Amino acid sequence: MKRQPMDTAAYTEQALIGPCFICRLLAGDPDYAHDVVFEDEDHIAFLDRWPVLPGKLLVCPKQHLEHCVGDFTEPAYLRMMQAVRLVALAAEDVVPGERTYLFSMGSQAGNSHLHWHVARIPAGVPYEEQQFDSLKFEQGVVVMSPQERADLADRLRAAVAARLARG
After folding, report:
1. Residue 4 vs residues 51, 52, 137, 142, 144: alpha-carbon distances, Å
2. Given 9, 15, 59, 84, which is the most exposed site by the fewest CB atoms within 10 A?
3. Quick check: pTM over 0.90?
């Protein structure tokens, strides 16, 4: 897997002073375009622009919510988790790995729009390099060509569609 260094200073600056990237994506701003793999009335999932692991995805409510529990009614939270599960299962169908990590990060200071990360840890990664270590930008981000990203997004969309068709 090829990696390149991450410009963490530029990323931090964008997160702190830039517009909400998820809201900009949903508004159709081409500067914030991502490879969408799932979308319904209330949720969207897309490939992470700066993946620390191959095939890393983000799953978000379309509404700009900021708190991963308190901003939801119980039925809305359960629907959100169904969307996360659907995307995670599709990732397991497409992206090889030994485990799927699910987590929500962000801050009131930056990247405040709630989002869940779906990340597959590749098989064979030594234990010392798994978990938190594998999620650090300092390890670099996975490099994919535009065609590789498009192909991966197509396979993930197909896996989501197949899972939806099975019910």
Report:
1. 11, 10, 10, 7, 10
2. 9
3. yes
Amino acid identity for residue 105 in this structure: M
User: In angstroms, how far is CA 4 from the centroid of its own chain?
Assistant: 19
pLDDT one-digit tens code per residue, 68-116: 999 999 999 999 999 999 999 999 999 999 999 999 988 889 899 999 9
What is the three-class DSSP state of 61? strand
Which CATH number does the domain housing residue 96 bear? 3.30.428.10
Residue 72 maps to a domain: yes
Cα separation of 144 and 157, whole Å? 18
Only one residue has tokens 């993930």, namely 156
Q: Token pair for residue 63?
A: 């509404």
Task: Render pLDDT for 46-79 as a digit per residue (tens, 0 to 9).
Answer: 999 999 999 999 999 999 999 999 999 999 999 9
Residue 110 domain boundaries: 7-166
Q: DSSP code of 134?
A: G
CA distance 54 to 72: 30
128 domain residue, yes or no: yes
The CB density around residue 74, as the number of other CB atoms within 10 Å, is 8
